[in-house]
Design goal:
Number of strands: 11
Radius of gyration: 27 Å
Shape: globular
Distance between the termini: 69 Å
Number of helices: 24
Structural class: alpha+beta
Largest sheet: 6 strands, mixed
Strand content: 5-15%
């Protein structure tokens, strides 16, 4: 018996009463789900380690799936802190290294209910990336042992993505060899930093550096904000929690105002820039290194927070759609599973394909980011940093937009039960919706990518070589292939189609911008007047990169024919769905004809029918335990209705019915009107 069969047999044994409607879906699977799970995990060894971590944590942390939905903010916050303490002890007990593979799976296992996310996810990486060896040796041990808790204070009340506009200042005082940090206005105060509200003792504060009367731009400084003895704010520090939010109730996002706060000169993170005792400023490498931490945060947040939300939403919605029956598809027969309806397939299966596309894209992006970081740290080679910055900004916007829309589509596809918090979908939707803003507002991210694209287009036109991700801009125009039933699903065909669209959109936007400038319009005005086109160009580039990366990942699976077949269907669906969703772009210059678009639409509908048959196994391959989904309607056993009732009965509001009756309703019910 294969490992997959052994594992799933054990899973099935854990569920004594599996809904027959979902059981038949799994029995009809024509590929090895376990092999696909290994592909998604990056290998069988990773799958084994991940499941081991989840199994250990499940014993104490991953119980009572529904309890989160009945907790208030205080209870949610305290739960995450409890989880931190427990996991720290458990990692020591299990001899899991902090930089080992096990630690990577802890966050996934506790589905984000883990305290100090900014401390672990941004504060520590920021010091590691931007600090000197001496600074790392001083601050990292304190941070990892939780002797201090750090936050990342960059965003201000009045400034977010536009970092050059930050108002916080750090002025060097040569007489004391200290930096004096000030936030001169209300709009200058830091607003939104996670872990700031009630947890942090320290923060990496980004401020405009001034030495010898000159501004050197934004730089990071380590600032202590609360006492280590009684946790009270230090002199000159005003700090607190910003209040309720749309989601992330467990995170204490905060505000910070600093007034004449002095810190030692050694507290400026100085791997790439330094201030001497007499105030002389020196830097090496690219000034963009001060943004590098945020670049890496974007990569990690998309991979660990945003994409998993879409994968979970697809899992919940697709499982629910094979146990929910609605109306007669064939007159006189049993009500049909709603996933048998083509309209439901069109809602959900493209989101599933998007999830797979985003996963493979994030793997490639993380690999490239790590390569660039090592080039910088070991060789002082900053040459790939502009390309990485452009990729991460554009793809952050593109993927988060896609996932936000996808999660919400999954929620709506589950009808009324999708509106219930107990389905798990509303919380996924509100969490994901924040990603269009944090770590860079999406429109601004697209515009930053567009600026890079135009520089590369100009370089290509002057005969210069281009970075790999934009090398297609220097290639000659391609002619349209004849799209027929035989080649409509040929990856080369649709990759070229996306490439042509990206090239055209970029060149059209550049032409529009340039013509305005040549006509005498000031550059900043021309840029604003062209900004809609610029965003479309950046989006077209990102779509091309995503489709191309999906196809490249597909090529790596040829040694597994069954897996290659099913992943290719997902890749095909993703590509065709994008074409049909932007029909005007592809028809615009005749590269794709109306007749060819008809063939694309026909193939698209055929793919929906094919993937419908294996939709449940495809979400099973994500291997999310019920404890991680926290959904009454998306559990593995398919017992949605009984679990929904079971969880609803646990609502703490139910015992309050009698109190309401006694206080308000009793007098109404005994009135003459109530007897009518």
């Amino acid at each position: 018996m294969s490992w997959w069969n052994v594992y799933r047999t054990n899973v099935n044994m854990a569920f004594k009463d599996i809904n027959p409607d979902i059981d038949t879906e799994r029995k009809g699977c024509n590929f090895d789900v376990e092999k696909l799970t290994h592909v998604l995990d990056g290998g069988a060894d990773n799958t084994h380690i991940r499941r081991k971590v989840e199994g250990v944590l499940k014993q104490d942390l991953l119980t009572n799936l529904e309890e989160l939905y009945f907790m208030n903010r205080e209870e949610r916050y305290l739960r995450t802190i409890r989880n931190v303490v427990y996991i720290k002890k458990k990692m020591e007990e299990m001899n899991w290294a902090e930089d080992g593979p096990e630690s990577e799976y802890v966050f996934r296992a506790v589905k984000g209910e883990f305290g100090f996310p900014l401390h672990n996810g941004v504060f520590i990486p920021c010091i590691n990336a931007l600090g000197t060896d001496a600074q790392i040796a001083k601050w990292i041990p304190l941070s990892k042992s939780y002797q201090i808790i750090g936050s990342y204070a960059q965003t201000e009340m009045g400034h977010g993505t536009y970092l050059r506009g930050l108002e916080t200042t750090a002025v060097y005082d040569t007489s004391t060899q200290e930096f004096v940090i000030n936030m001169p206005t209300v709009s200058a105060m830091k607003w939104w930093p996670g872990d700031m509200g009630r947890s942090a003792t320290h923060a990496v504060v980004f401020a405009q550096l001034y030495t010898q009367g000159k501004c050197h731009g934004m730089h990071p400084f380590i600032v202590q904000i609360r006492s280590l003895e009684d946790h009270s704010p230090l002199p000159g520090v005003m700090v607190g929690d910003i209040g309720p939010k749309m989601a992330f109730e467990q995170v204490d996002n905060g505000y910070l105002m600093l007034s004449d706060v002095r810190i030692p000169k050694e507290n400026m993170l100085s791997r790439y820039s330094k201030v001497s005792d007499d105030g002389m400023y020196r830097k090496r490498g690219s000034e963009r290194m001060n943004y590098f931490t945020m670049v890496m945060v974007r990569v990690n947040v998309v991979a660990t927070e945003v994409i998993p939300s879409l994968l979970k939403a697809c899992t919940i919605a697709i499982r629910y759609s094979v146990i929910r029956r609605q109306s007669e598809l064939k007159p006189g027969e049993k009500e049909a599973k709603i996933l048998d309806y083509q309209t439901q397939q069109k809602k959900l299966l493209p989101q599933l394909a998007t999830g797979y596309a985003a996963h493979f894209l994030s793997v490639g992006l993380k690999t490239f980011a790590n390569q660039v970081y090592m080039q910088i740290k070991t060789k002082g080679d900053f040459s790939s940093l502009p390309e990485l910055h452009a990729l991460t900004t554009g793809l952050k916007a593109f993927i988060t937009d896609s996932c936000i829309a996808g999660v919400e589509e999954c929620r709506k596809a589950c009808g009324g039960h999708g509106y219930s918090v107990l389905s798990g979908l509303p919380s996924l939707s509100t969490r994901t919706s924040a990603s269009c803003t944090y770590e860079g507002e999406n429109t601004v991210m697209f515009l930053q990518t567009a600026r890079f694209l135009f520089k590369c287009l100009a370089a290509a036109q002057s005969g210069q070589s281009l970075p790999p991700s934009v090398a297609y801009l220097s290639e000659s125009d391609i002619k349209s292939r004849t799209v027929s039933k035989k080649n409509v699903l040929n990856p080369d065909t649709y990759v070229e189609t996306y490439r042509h669209r990206a090239c055209r959109l970029i060149k059209e936007a550049a032409s529009m911008l340039q013509s305005q400038i040549q006509s005498g319009v000031e550059q900043y005005v021309a840029w604003n007047n062209s900004s809609v086109k610029l965003v479309q160009a950046a989006e077209g580039h990102c779509y091309y990169i995503t489709v191309k990366t999906f196809v490249e990942a597909l090529e790596q699976l040829r040694h597994e024919p069954e897996i290659h077949r099913i992943v290719k269907q997902l890749c095909d669906l993703y590509a065709l769905h994008g074409i049909l969703s932007h029909t005007g772009d592809f028809l615009y210059d005749g590269f794709v004809t109306k007749e060819q678009m008809d063939q694309i639409n026909q193939s698209y509908l055929e793919l929906l029918a094919l993937l419908r048959k294996e939709a449940v196994p495809l979400v099973d391959a994500f291997d999310y335990a019920d404890e991680q989904l926290a959904s009454a309607i998306g559990c593995y056993d398919g017992q949605a209705y009984s679990r929904l009732l079971e969880w609803a009965k646990k609502s703490p509001d139910n015992p309050k019915v009698k109190e309401t009756f006694k206080q308000y309703l009793n007098s109404l019910f005994v009135s003459p009107v109530s007897k009518l």
